[in-house]
Amino acid sequence: MFKECGIMLDSHGRDINYLRISVTGMCNLRCSYCMPEGGIKKKAHKEILSLETIEQIAFSAVDLGFQKIRITGGEPLVRKGIIDVIHQIAQLKSRGLKDLGLTTNGTLLSGYADELKKMGLTRVNISLDSLDAEKYSQITRGGKLSSVLEGIQAAKEAKLWPLKINVVLIGGFNDDEIEEFVNLTREDDVEVRFIELMPIGEASGWDREHFLSGTEILKRVPQLMPLAVKGQGAVARLYKLPNSKGRVGIISPLSNHFCNYCNRIRITPDGKLKPCLHSDLELDIRNYGEDYERFLLDGVFAKPNRHSMQNEDYEPVLRNMNEIGG
């Protein structure tokens, strides 16, 4: 690993500058590919990272040269004190932080969007796997589509840009809505991102027909035009309908991996650092005391050259997505 002038290269020559911090495994939804039907047992306070520790990790990361931090969950807006955390981390923009994002299911966002913007949040990604109210309730086990749509509108009004809508592509469930999702970009300056379903946690035992390649989007909507990828570490291949205001992104970790330019590491709510989403390798913060820089540096050094999902001997990651942060 090589660090100089704010650049951290891992052992494979990639600049690691993006940290995802999952602040809670709890969520107000129960998406079937993400969380057990009965939910999860709430962890004791001592089992999860304190808000102060999350802030200290963020400070150390920016001092090391990380330029992008994303707050995730579970659903991060159910974590008490999250607004203050956003505000504290946003202060790091004066020290080199360029982007502070939040991934949310959007159901609570209408009540938080304005304040999040005022506290320094740059942007939001909103998870939305169906535009049909009944199907949305089915996949989330009781969620209300109207709440998400209100959250999307609130994010637009608060100017949390660029606004991205994450759609997990699931064969036999929402692949019949591909065109409808793409059409959201015609008159609206949003980026709709289709993400291949990954065999992690709850979804690891699903039937193969549910796992569709991202190329299915281009088959269904052949008029999509490719755009140049901008920025190091971009994982989405970008497309655009003729004369549309928004864009379409395709994220294909299975069929077209982006390991060669992966620039991120992840921290779980219980203080484990995952150098790779698709590996069970984790570093425990409890082995580092308060040496958060060494914790992060060791995580960068431990990043594998690529994930092994396509290998015959691949063992699915044991954690559910709500415990990792995606």
UniProtKB/TrEMBL annotation:
EC number per UniProt: 4.1.99.22
Annotated GO biological process: Mo-molybdopterin cofactor biosynthetic process
Binding site for [4Fe-4S] cluster 1: C27, C31, C34
Gene Ontology MF: a single term: metal ion binding
Record's keyword annotation contains Cytoplasm: no
Enzyme class: lyase
Protein residues bound to [4Fe-4S] cluster 2: C259, C262, C276
Pathway linked to the protein: Cofactor biosynthesis; molybdopterin biosynthesis
One Pfam family of this chain: Mob_synth_C
Domain of life: Bacteria
UniProt-listed SMART domains: Elp3
Catalytic activity: GTP + AH2 + S-adenosyl-L-methionine = (8S)-3',8-cyclo-7,8-dihydroguanosine 5'-triphosphate + 5'-deoxyadenosine + L-methionine + A + H(+)
Positions bound to GTP: R20, R70, T103, K164, R264, I265, R266
Record keywords: 4Fe-4S, GTP-binding, Iron, Iron-sulfur, Lyase, Metal-binding, Molybdenum cofactor biosynthesis, Nucleotide-binding, S-adenosyl-L-methionine
Cofactor note: Binds 2 [4Fe-4S] clusters. Binds 1 [4Fe-4S] cluster coordinated with 3 cysteines and an exchangeable S-adenosyl-L-methionine and 1 [4Fe-4S] cluster coordinated with 3 cysteines and the GTP-derived substrate.
Chain ranges of the Radical SAM core domain: 11-228
Cofactor(s) this protein requires: [4Fe-4S] cluster
UniProt xrefs under PROSITE patterns: MOAA_NIFB_PQQE, RADICAL_SAM
Signal peptide positions (record): none
List of residues binding S-adenosyl-L-methionine: Y33, G74, S127, M198
Family as reported in the entry's similarity comment: Belongs to the radical SAM superfamily. MoaA family.
Known role: Catalyzes the cyclization of GTP to (8S)-3',8-cyclo-7,8-dihydroguanosine 5'-triphosphate.
Assembly information from the UniProt record: Monomer and homodimer.
Protein name as annotated: GTP 3',8-cyclase
Lineage: Bacteria, Bacillati, Bacillota, Clostridia, Eubacteriales
Gene: moaA
